[in-house]
Amino acid sequence: MILSRASWTNRNASWRQAFCTCAVLSILVAAPAFLMILLLDSQLVLPALSILFFSDAMITALLAWAKSGNATLENVTLWDVAGALTMLGCAAAILGEPDQVALLFEQPVRLHSDAALGDSASP
Q: How many other β-carbons are positioned within 10 Å of the β-carbon of residue 53?
């Protein structure tokens, strides 16, 4: 009885590993996207999502490159997922406007410059 369970575990190990990888990648995309939608202004969501999708595509591509086995889930490889995330990042970047991207990067610079001015003004 124990041997039959062990052989079942060995046969389905790649499927479980692929499912876990898919779950982790889904969480890496969904959780930050949900927080961005809740916390950012509506003008900043598309540029931030574009950056998120590109960074998740990079992480997925690095995972695909690092894996020695061909972990697939219904013949979808990690390279396919990285390509899809890249396309989503391109779509979010195309739909966003350049002013929104400037506004996204202007906010941290403004906070940093205000802090630097405040530090130099004090004796």
A: 22
Cα 22 to Cα 26: distance, rounded to the nearest angstrom = 6
Closest CA to 95 of 87, 105, 103, 83: 87
Give pTM, 2 decimals. 0.64
Angle between helices 45-66 and 98-121 (to 10 degrees): 100
Dump pLDDT digits (tens) for 43-56.
Answer: 888 888 888 999 98
- What's 42's DSSP letter? T
Distance CA(104)–CA(100), nearest Å, equals 6
pLDDT tens sequence across 7-58: 444 455 577 777 887 788 889 889 998 998 898 888 888 888 888 999 989 8
Q: CA 21 to CA 13: how far, in whole Å?
A: 12
Contact predicate 71/14, CB 8 Å: yes
For 57-113, the DSSP string reads HHHHHHHHHH-SS---SSS--HHHHHHHHHHHHHHHHHHS-HHHHHHHHHHHHHHHH
